[in-house]
Amino acid sequence: MKAAIKRIASAVLMTTVLLASAGTAYADEEMEAREAERAASYEVVPDTNNIEGWPKGPQVYGNSAIVMDMNSGAVLYAKKPDERHYPASITKLMTALVALENASLEDEVYFSEDSVSFLEYGDASIGMTPGEILSMNDALYGMLLASANEVSYAIAESVGKLTGGGFDTFIQKMNDRAEEIGCTGSHWVNANGLHDEQHYTTAHDMALIASKVYQFEEFRTVVQTLNYTIGTTNLVGETRTFQQNHKMLWPQNANYYEYCTGGKTGYTDQARTTLVTMADDGNLPLAAVVLRDYGNDAYIDTRAMFDYAFANFVKVPLNDQEKAAGISSYEDENAYIVLPSGADFSSVRAKITVTDKTKAAGTVTYTYQGQNVGSAAVKLTEEYVKEETGYSLTPEITGTGTSDKGQNSKGGLPLAAKIVIGIAAGIILLFVILYVYLRYKLAKRRKMRMERARRRRQAQRGVRQYSASHSRMGGSRNQARGPRGEHTGDYRGRPYRGGISRTDNKS
């Protein structure tokens, strides 16, 4: 029996040793493969290094990387910026953007069973339970600082309901909004970044998203916070305290960067390390993105890209330069582009896009050696809008009338002026008609008065004639007698007509 036990124990020990050896070998192979991938990625030359006259940027370990000015959209550094990768938790920047645009900080975030039950062991979480309620303000801290996945889900579900739908409504808004701000290589299927084959983005798209969400003061406040405590909730009587995960914000950390103003970390086995960082040296507000990076290399890469950008580029205010033909003014008087130090503005090319012809609104994008160095919203000249779109901002009168859309040939009056003239003409015509009518009524009344006066005069002449005739005949004033002396009639002052006395014809 003892011998059998010894044999079993020996077999178990041998199996354990073999499995451990196999596991170690597998781990070693995986490490070697990752190191080979890391080294190969580092050797890839940044795209911007191939631009003639462009400052040479650092090589980085991240598979894709970019540095963008957050105000102008100028791309200062790029390495495979449009290559698709899994984003991991930097997805939460897109979630924050849609939430801030569709909800207020006082709105409630409700944790349903669905928002919690999907979590697996190891997923980032702050331990929310079904039925709990947080304010949107607290939820944003939980999502962006602690990277809590259940909080991301609850935010999406709650804001989706606020907009008349649910979780899927929010996800659709993420995709729609990304397209609206210019993202061309992103697709979102969840709000937290947990791995899905159909959930991906690009470095350039993430820089656009970071630039847009950074405009919200509420977002800047959250991502610059190092520690935050959520108070007791409707179901839990204890507080929850968590810390900022972005190492470049911690002064005591070796990766601390003095110009860092916020950011978001991410990691999954499939995505590797992803990192979005915002920084401002007091002159240029920049967003840096690295995708599929390798642990702490993400911070090293980000610092190298920021140092390069701050040292080699300058802000060029557009109002200090000659405007491109077709531009009337810039909507933002502080609009600028970013050029390599020493570059001349005369080498910059402008491309204008009409965004609203009825308002003469457009966007101008400037390039230097083919590289985007900034865009600005502009007011366009009427001549440019007419030339590019055929639309006339000043409708004109022609001999054959106006067009269907109120546009007229060159040299005519504005539509508003024609309307005013038409109204004035109508009022004048109304007064003329009223004047003619009143004149007619006055003339008619005058004619009637004259006719009455004429009749009175004629009647008076008749009375006088009657009186004179009656006196000659010796009759009284009111009576006339016939040959036999009988009364012929009582006229009682009525006018005597014809001057001939009336008599009875009795036989």
List keywords for this structure.
507 residues, alpha+beta, 5-stranded antiparallel sheet, 4-stranded antiparallel sheet, 17 strands, transmembrane helix, serine-type D-Ala-D-Ala carboxypeptidase activity
Question: How would you describe the overall organization of this protein?
Answer:
With 507 residues, this protein is of the alpha+beta class. The protein has helices at 2-42, 91-102, 114-117, 136-144, 149-162, 167-180, 203-213, 217-223, 297-312, 382-389, 415-473; strands at 64-69, 75-79, 108-110, 133-135, 227-230, 240-243, 260-268, 272-280, 285-293, 313-317, 327-330, 336-340, 348-356, 361-368, 371-380, 479-481, 487-490. The strands form six sheets. Strands 2-1-9-8-7 form a five-stranded antiparallel sheet, sandwiched between helices. Strand 7 and strand 8 form a beta hairpin. Mean pLDDT is 86; it is low at 399-411 and 473-507. Residues 57-292 form the Peptidase S11 D-alanyl-D-alanine carboxypeptidase A N-terminal domain.
Structural class: alpha+beta
| Pattern of helices and strands | HEEHEHEHHHHHEEEEEHEEEEEEHHEE
| Strand line-up of the largest beta sheet | 2-1-9-8-7
- Please tell me how large the radius of gyration is: 47 Å
Helices, strands, pairings?
Elements: H1 2-42, E1 64-69, E2 75-79, H2 91-102, E3 108-110, H3 114-117, E4 133-135, H4 136-144, H5 149-162, H6 167-180, H7 203-213, H8 217-223, E5 227-230, E6 240-243, E7 260-268, E8 272-280, E9 285-293, H9 297-312, E10 313-317, E11 327-330, E12 336-340, E13 348-356, E14 361-368, E15 371-380, H10 382-389, H11 415-473, E16 479-481, E17 487-490
Antiparallel strand pairs: 1-2, 1-9, 3-4, 5-6, 7-8, 8-9, 10-12, 11-15, 13-14, 14-15, 16-17
Helix pairs in contact: 2-5, 2-6, 2-7, 4-5, 5-6
